[in-house]
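Appendix B. Raw example, untouched.
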Amino acid sequence: MQPVVYDVAVSIDCYISGPDGDISKFAHEGPVVDDYNQRLSTYACAIMGRKTYEFGYKYGLEPGGNPYPHLRTYIFSQTLNLPPEREVGLVRNDQKAFLQKLRKEQDGPIYLCGGGDFAGSLMIDGEIDIIRLKRAPIFLGGGTKLFGDTACSGNVSCTGSKLYDGGYIFQEFTSSALQERI
């Protein structure tokens, strides 16, 4: 079974985007981004919720388009409307069963893109196996929280870290759910 990996940039005050979805304060180039792009090439598919998908519209993504053309991408949403001719899968019902099937069928890790409420619901259900944080030396003061408004609990172990010039810190955590699946 393939792990679900939440790989995301986060501010010191635990936001993955600022007010109105602002991501301008996060690094967009340099070693921390290069390492992220290398990790991105190792994922077999991507999953995200509606809000993360629609966030891409601000940057030119057309409804139905794939923000990660090199990956099969699935949007988990009860309410998103997409054209019948689309490049992404839309998961409306029995999301947990679909994710379990995806874990079995993929030949590599599953990239949880974005987060907030969707990541929070997956965390509560014990569906996130690895958390990879690119901790930025910034405060955003509001916006989208790492796990939305979900009160998460559970045990994780830090399995790696790397300090970058300029204050970025990469940290990888393995959840107790992964240990139970192995």
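End of appendix B.
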